[in-house]
Known about the structure:
Elements: E1 21-33, E2 38-49, E3 57-60, E4 65-71, E5 77-81, E6 84-88, E7 98-107, E8 120-124, E9 127-131, E10 151-160, E11 164-167, E12 170-177, E13 180-191, E14 198-201, E15 204-208, E16 218-222, H1 227-233, H2 237-248, E17 256-260, E18 269-271, E19 274-277, H3 289-297, E20 306-307, H4 313-330, H5 336-348, H6 367-384, H7 386-399, E21 404-405, H8 407-415, H9 423-430, E22 463-466
Parallel strand pairs: 1-10, 16-17, 17-19, 20-21
Antiparallel strand pairs: 1-2, 2-7, 3-6, 4-7, 5-6, 8-9, 9-14, 10-13, 11-14, 12-13, 15-16, 15-22, 18-19
Helix pairs in contact: 2-3, 3-4, 4-6, 5-6, 6-7, 6-9
Amino acid sequence: xxxxxxxxxxxxxxxxxxxxxxxxxxxxxxxxxxxxxxxxxxxxxxxxxxxxxxxxxxxxxxxxxxxxxxxxxxxxxxxxxxxxxxxxxxxxxxxxxxxxxxxxxxxxxxxxxxxxxxxxxxxxxxxxxxxxxxxxxxxxxxxxxxxxxxxxxxxxxxxxxxxxxxxxxxxxxxxxxxxxxxxxxxxxxxxxxxxxxxxxxxxxxxxxxxxxxxxxxxxxxxxxxxxxxxxxxxxxxxxxxxxxxxxxxxxxxxxxxxxxxxxxxxxxxxxxxxxxxxxxxxxxxxxxxxxxxxxxxxxxxxxxxxxxxxxxxxxxxxxxxxxxxxxxxxxxxxxxxxxxxxxxxxxxxxxxxxxxxxxxxxxxxxxxxxxxxxxxxxxxxxxxxxxxxxxxxxxxxxxxxxxxxxxxxxxxxxxxxxxxxxxxxxxxxxxxxxxxxxxxxxxxxxxxxxxxxxxxxxxxxxxxxxxx
Length: 468
């Protein structure tokens, strides 16, 4: 892409991201003091210029004080205004050239303002967490803030030793010196900036499931007083993992962690290899179990298979919503057809002004997008029949593992599994605001009509030993 053309990567957020280059690795070294909410950081980015010579490029970073920037070891000219670092290297970068950027910065991190409230770094009563979707990542580190620019990450956090630091990925080292501890995490899988998760708090760490049985390592980081309720509410997560691997293919990352913050959160938040819940999502009665399934499903749909830009957000939310329905169907709850019927009745009473495939920034997190997204996936299931549908779904997650997709990618994929044309059906559900009729199922069910997993009124087991 020519440097003279627009650098905007997303029509919904034109000030975020720069498509003239891509980052393939971030190394973040952070020092955080919870009391004064003080963050000092060094970010090293390894990047590659695009098809045209790069005389300048942009990074997104909130209003920290920038101490120093280096590009390939040399000081560039830069400006930092309005959450954007505009960097002009001392020597233009050749097309396709690899280069490094090092940014030293410090300040008091705070959320990025948005129509949905503050996004990104959130100071808690005792600790902090990051919830960046869609554009909150610059609240705590400099980044090329666009979903399609996926990179590996190493994150080092030094903080007082009383606190536990949790990030998405594998914990490489935990080193204590005097009164502080440095935690180093590695996320080797390609990761979008908004999906880099972090939580700092007073947690007890437990293992979910039986670690001796193999499978995906699953851990939880929970305030001690919430553990009795948590042990029931998340008891069936290992069974969810088993089901989703069966239906969607192998779990796409090395491990999965959940954090329960000791505060209320409006909604849970997915990050790569990590999901964040609030204390209000733990009631001891599995009242939020559908959300446990939803966030886990995002590891396949949204995190591994990532949208090219935010116009396609229904691919994340519709497939995660449908995973809720599949979990309900398999675990002895209501069937997907019953849940689809309920969702359809609800949507029929609401405004018909949502274009699912391009909802616009104002409606991208509207509840109707989630419900209609799930209904669209159900309509595809009804049209294909269960056998072809589940092959399609598994292949979607497998073929595009760690990749970037669009709605057009998905519709072309679906069409390959249909014995009759589905263009009209897909157009009605994705492109037209009016709600199509409720789809009717046909074909033999591929999912047994029996509770193959622990029923809803089962015991509270599922937690392993507490971690040191």
